[in-house]
């Protein structure tokens, strides 16, 4: 689907929704939960999100392209989680001697 220039700008700035009134062209009707691929008026990829044909919020953005510092549409994808958070080390698994149950056995 294609969107208005105002909507494209909002998506690039991190807005999480795409409203019905911002859609200028839609290639098919779609079902609730379908993935919507969003382009600007020059057919450049902007975002991907979950489509809902019954809501005024037609698409809930999952991932969007970042605006590059030069002002052109960059190729970097904006992730919902910051990379350091997603790559942070996890705590080790508890040993088999630890009691994880609410009702420990053998006591």
> How many β strands by DSSP?
7
Low-confidence parts: 68-74
Structural class based on helices, strands and sheet pairing: mainly beta
Annotated CATH homologous superfamily:
PUA domain
Cα(first) to Cα(last) distance is: 62 Å
Q: Which word captures the global form? A: globular
- Kindly identify the CATH topology: Archaeosine Trna-guanine Transglycosylase, Chain: A, domain 4
Mean pLDDT across every amino acid position: 77
Major sheet, described briefly? 5 strands, antiparallel
The radius of gyration computed from the alpha-carbon positions, rounded to a whole number of angstroms, is: 21 Å
Which second-level CATH architecture applies?
A: Roll
How many DSSP H or I helices?
Answer: 2
Q: How large a portion of the residues is in β-strands, by DSSP E?
A: 25-35%
Oligomer: single chain
Layout of helices and strands:
Blueprint: E1 2-3, H1 5-12, E2 17-19, E3 23-25, E4 35-39, E5 45-51, E6 57-67, E7 73-78, H2 83-87
Antiparallel strand pairs: 1-3, 2-6, 4-5, 5-6, 6-7
Summarize the structure in words:
This protein is mainly beta. The chain has a single domain, classed as PUA domain (Archaeosine Trna-guanine Transglycosylase, Chain: A, domain 4, Roll). The chain is 12% helix and 35% strand. The strands form 2 sheets. Strands 2, 4, 5, 6 and 7 form a 5-stranded antiparallel sheet that branches. The chain has a two-stranded antiparallel sheet with strand order 1-3. Strand 6 and strand 7 form a beta hairpin. Residues 68-74 have low confidence and may be disordered.
């Amino acid at each position: 689907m294609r969107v208005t220039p105002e909507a494209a700008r909002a998506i690039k700035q991190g807005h999480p929704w795409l409203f019905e009134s911002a859609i200028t062209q839609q290639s098919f009707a779609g079902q609730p939960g379908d993935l919507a691929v969003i382009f600007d008026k020059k057919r450049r990829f902007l975002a991907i999100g979950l489509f809902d044909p019954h809501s005024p919020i037609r698409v809930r953005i999952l991932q969007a392209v970042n605006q590059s510092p030069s002002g052109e549409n960059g190729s970097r994808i904006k992730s919902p989680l910051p990379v350091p958070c997603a790559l942070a080390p996890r705590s080790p698994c508890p040993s088999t001697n630890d009691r994880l149950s609410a009702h420990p056995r053998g006591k």
